Structures are given as C-alpha cells and as structure tokens.
Amino acid sequence: MARRAWSEMEEEILLTNLTSLVDQGVWQAENEFHPGYLGVLENQMRVSFPEAGIKENHIEGKIKKWKRDYYDLDAILQIPNWPQLRHFRDRKFPNYNRWGHCFVRQEN
User: Fold this and answer.
1) Residue of 9, 94, 23, 17 lying closest to 63 (CA atoms)
2) Under DSSP, is residue 33 helix (H, G, I), strand (E, B) or coil?
3) pLDDT at 11
4) What highest taxon heads this organism's lineage (predicted)?
5) Nearest to residue 50, comparing CAs of 2, 102, 13?
6) Are 32 and 67 in contact (CB under 8 A)?
C-alpha cells in the first residue's frame, strides 16, 4: 500500500465523505463497509482534489489508520493507564467522535 502525506483539508473532506456514506445507511456492514465504498470515496476525492492523485489504496490506508487510532483511544478511555499506549499522551484527536460514528455500528 502506497503511503502518502495527507493535507488537513484532504483529511477533512475524506472524513466528511465517509460520514456521509455512513449516514446514507447503505454502505456500512456489520464491522466494515460494503464492497465499492472505496471507489465512491475515490470519485468524491477526485472531484474535490483533481490533481492530488488520491486512489483507493491511499483512502483505504487512511481509514485503517483512523480506525486503529479510534479503537486504541477507546481502550485508553476505558483503561487510562495502559503503558503501551503512551504514544498517544500528548496528541490531540479532534475527530474521535466522528471516527466513532463511522466505525461503530449504529443500532437503529
């Protein structure tokens, strides 16, 4: 998977688009998203950033990182003294609640 540096604006638009897919209620499966969601997000990102070259693999990598960070942070909030999670100590995560909206299956 190719790594790329994301700008704050690119991340914001990707998270907004991902949240929109979740809100539509057709893309979210039990603990994942239905096939095809990465293509939808790639097309949306291409509209917003036509010269950026953001591909499905970039989007998949960013979402996996967000998901990993979300669940690590959730663990910290449950048991705040885990020494192996100290690398989060001085970082800020303003999107924590938005990540939870996208990654935790919402009950109807």
Assistant:
1) 17
2) strand
3) 97
4) Eukaryota
5) 13
6) no
Q: Please identify which residue in the block is written with the tokens 């070259």.
A: 53
In angstroms, the CA 53 to CA 10 distance is: 11
CB-based contact 77:99 (threshold 8 Å): no
Task: For residue 33, list its beta bridge partners.
Answer: 28
Q: What's the burial of 99, exposed, middle or buried (CB within 10 Å: 0-12/13-18/19+)?
A: buried
What confidence tens digit (pLDDT) does each residue in 1-43 have? 457 899 999 999 999 999 999 998 878 766 678 889 999 999 9
Cβ contact 41:10 at 8 Å: no
